[in-house]
Specification:
By secondary structure, the chain is an all-alpha fold. It has one domain. It is flat and about 45 Å long. It starts with a helix and ends with a helix. 25% of the residues are buried.
Length: 109
């Protein structure tokens, strides 16, 4: 169940939903840290961007480690459901339910 909550809903659905809304919370936080770090040490803000990229790659690797290929499919379906949520709530909820069910079968927990 941890895989479903963390990867399917967190990484998949919420990431897609934030894209649909037009807000990228990771970018907002990254920009704030980069500006703060640049004010202390100019030119070092690039490390924040690198950490953000590595964090995204790490999240995908963790999703694969916990759920395998089927788990990544569940995360992808949840991501699509998040993107279409504002335009087609019924289909988005159906896709999210399918992703959660697939995620339950894919979980290595």
């Amino acid at each position: 169940m941890k895989f479903v909550r963390t990867c399917v809903v967190g990484l998949g659905f919420l990431s897609g939903f934030w894209i649909a809304v037009g807000v990228d919370p990771e970018a907002v936080i990254t920009n704030a840290f980069a500006q703060a770090l640049n004010s202390i040490s100019p030119g070092s803000g690039v490390y924040i961007w690198l950490a953000s990229f590595v964090g995204t790659i790490f999240s995908i690797i963790v999703a694969y480690a916990l759920g395998g290929g089927l788990g990544l499919i569940a995360v992808g379906i949840a991501f699509i459901s998040g993107i279409i949520f504002l335009n087609s709530t019924g289909w988005a909820l159906l896709l999210l339910a399918v992703a959660i069910i697939i995620g339950m079968f894919a979980s290595n927990e």
